[in-house]
Amino acid sequence: MPSYGKGKPLTDMAQENAYDLVVIGGGPAGYAGAIRAAQLGHKAACIEMERPGGTCLNWGCIPTKALLKSAELFQEMRHAETYGLACENVTVDFAKVMQRSRIVADQMAKGIGFLFKKNKVEHITGKGRVILPGLVEITSGESQGRLLQSKNILLATGCTPKVIPGLTPDGERVLTSFEALKLQKMPGSIIIMGAGAIGVEFAYFLNALGCKVTLVEMLPRILPIEDDDVSASLERAFKKQGITIRTGVKAENVHVERSGVKLELVGADGAREAAQAECLLLAIGVTANTNGLLGSKVTLATDRGFITVDDHYQTSIKGVYGAGDVIGPPWLAHVATYESVQAVNGMFGHGSPQRVKVFPGCTYCQPQVASAGLTERACREKGLKYRIGKFPFTASGKAVASDHTEGFVKFIIAEETDEILGAHIIGSEATELIAECVLAMQMEGTWQDIHAAIHAHPTLSEAVAESAAASHNEAIHI
């Protein structure tokens, strides 16, 4: 029998390279999809350029949360006297703060590697390219040139930070979130362009450790996709912390010099304001990571650069699916995981796949921000009839005892059905508290369901129940 490679028969080689699912991309969508296929008893391979985990684990969600925890603890130590404690001369070792974030990412990446082995998912280091329906070529790494056959291919390559043409990130003066996570020396000052979740989180982190931060946003509010009340509350908190905020302006005439970056901020009325800092962080959005993903004979339908999928997560080519950031917003790791699991369930006939409906959006600055469903602004635009329930953390015993009284919980309740249209939280542990709201909304629960569930006292979660009750004037503590 003829052989191929290291003396293996062609039939053996064909069997080795035949899979039930080949996933391109090893982030939250990619590794979850591959593992789910293996759980269902199918042979799966996951192709990832670097180690498992993708941007989220290695250069996004996980390391940034480690940085934010360092910033939070530093601020707590600086204000230890509030709790009757003495903690003097607290200093920051920025390099060690950054090093810890890499250690955390390393640990989590090893965990994904363990899960691959446990579930018998083959991890291939390199880049994958769909050259024909059902056929993937490895285009880099030790397995370069290898061809994988599969009836099902899942594209989960995520996104990359958007940059301004002519303004190339250099890791010193011009940064994206990727370069910012490699810094070894904290800049004395920084201009952050874009006040979405990434921009806001870096603004909090750097300011908390002593960097002079200017946060710039073209739209009228920071965190512009959040409820207006939440955005306004966070802006007040940030200004109190010493962050300079410029909203409703765009940056022009950016000049990168050896000593720093200079630019002009232009308002809607044409007024110009000069601004300068040691470096500039671009947090202006993301673009789909599709470079080199498709061969010359493969064309997929796209929308604004993002891969288009149907209700089963199938692309315009049969057998080729997409999940996660590469198929468009919301660009959230937990949404990506949900989408990939649903896609895999559907492709192997394990129930009917569901598209994302209710999901939490979280920003991990301090105070934290979390939300689900419609904003009040969106409800007005849709002409919906609703009631508002709002409970401030200043009235929460646990918040007062913890000295974390900033913020509130806000529910938007449908007048006719009593169902929850939107939930919005700003304050300590908001990103944990939102889970109850998402569960209630997923189950089409009402404000009464939240209010009737007994919440332990004293806890921050009581504010969720009181907010629901406040929508119908039944809150006890306000």
Shape verdict? globular
Instruction: Just give the CATH class of the largest domain.
Output: Alpha Beta
Number of domains: 3
Beta strand %: 25-35%
Tell me the number of helical segments per DSSP (H or I, 4 or more residues long).
Answer: 14
Structural notes for this entry:
- The chain is of the alpha/beta class and 478 residues long.
- It folds into three domains: 3-58 and 97-160 and 287-347, 3-Layer(bba) Sandwich (FAD/NAD(P)-binding domain); 174-284, FAD/NAD(P)-binding domain (3-Layer(bba) Sandwich); 367-470, Enolase-like, domain 1, CATH 3.30.390.30.
- The strands form eight sheets. It has a five-stranded parallel beta sheet with strand order 6-5-4-10-23, covered by helices on one side. A five-stranded parallel beta sheet has the order 12-19-13-14-15. The protein has a five-stranded antiparallel beta sheet with strand order 24-25-28-27-26, with helices on both faces.
- The radius of gyration is 24 Å and the shape is globular.
- It starts with a strand and ends in an 8-residue tail after the last helix.
Please sum up the structure shown.
The protein is an alpha/beta fold.
Structural key phrases:
478 residues; alpha/beta; FAD/NAD(P)-binding domain; Enolase-like, domain 1; 3 domains; 5-stranded parallel beta sheet; 14 helices; 32% helix; 25% strand
How is the topology of this model organized?
Elements (H helix, E strand, L loop, with lengths): L2 E2 L3 E2 H7 L1 E2 L1 E4 L3 H12 L4 E5 L5 H6 L1 H18 L15 H26 L2 E4 L2 E5 L2 E4 L8 E4 L2 E3 L3 E3 L12 E2 L1 H4 L8 E5 L3 H12 L3 E6 L10 H14 L2 E4 L1 E8 L4 E7 L4 E6 L1 E4 L3 E3 L13 E2 L2 E2 L12 E3 L10 H15 L13 E3 L4 E6 L2 H7 L3 E7 L4 H6 L5 E7 L5 E8 L2 H13 L4 H6 L9 H9 L8
Helix pairs in contact: 2-5, 2-9, 4-5, 4-7
